[in-house]
């Protein structure tokens, strides 16, 4: 697929400004005897998965076998690049499992089964169960059966030759067609029996786009840690995971490496400015917003976060919401960020305050910043 210049610029801006990790590795006083670090910049690789740019940067790894201690810096870097390549293979594996647009995926097979039960992987069942859980927690504001409505809007990246304001294209569906489609949106009509999934309404379609990236980010993080990685940043299109803190950095008062610094983009800025910084040590940071994925028709903006009741873009007082949660809960951060954007600040704050270990930073339509507590690890710029 050939993207137009605005799309490419928007992707690069997302990578460079949403994840502003200020890695200032000063000394190696935080290293253990068997931990290898690799300089100020780490070893990084990018790829395109899940319809977005993804990057993984490794700054430190624990030498599980003893062989890394004998490697030169160049040899170590090559080994870490191979490790990142294997992590990206996981992204590819789960995309082929969870995408609704890949015909052989578990999700596509469920959608095409006409209401019959379909045997799928345990991972797919796990993600669908999580989607149902957030449907219950949000009283349907988050609904993974909105797939057909999403299709009607046709949101996609603009290709070469397509001139758009945002780098996205789409179409406003006919109201009657959308209304008919919304009759078939109801997460409560998903039936799970062991490894089999059935849609009780055969006209429904599952779309895990609001939760799958977070799930995959958790799986990638688990893989890297099992391989011995002690310091890294995983960024799957804005689903960010900080594995511990800065390898080799000065210790804080508790004797731990300093946290990574993750910038939150200013949704009202076209130049990549940030509203503030999250201090992330073993944390996941996930942002959803209405300011990047949208198209304009007849002078009106239509963003991609749909209201599960009407099928139209959610009428919300939120431009962006960033969820901060413990590492291993990126799947929850993904679902919560989408939910809170649709719910708005008041209801979104109430939801976050019910969940242990989660905090949120909202930016409203006037550019004002709201946080869910005074204890949040967020500093305004």
> In CATH terms, what is the architecture of the largest domain?
Roll
Q: Kindly report how far apart the N and C termini lie.
A: 38 Å
**How helix-rich are the residues, as a percent range?**
25-40%
Number of helices: 9
Secondary-structure class: alpha+beta
Shape: globular
**Uncertain spans:** 12-33
Please report the first level of CATH classification, the CATH class of the largest domain. Alpha Beta
CATH topology of the largest domain: T-fold
Taking the sheet with the most strands, its summary is: 9 strands, antiparallel
* Overall pLDDT: 88
Radius of gyration: 21 Å
CATH homologous superfamily (4th level) name of the largest domain: ApbE-like domains
H/E topology pattern: HEEEHHEHHEEHEEHEEEEEEEEHHEEE
Q: What would the keywords be for this entry?
A:
single chain; 381 residues; alpha+beta; T-fold; 2 domains; nine-stranded antiparallel beta sheet; three-stranded antiparallel beta sheet; 9 helices; globular
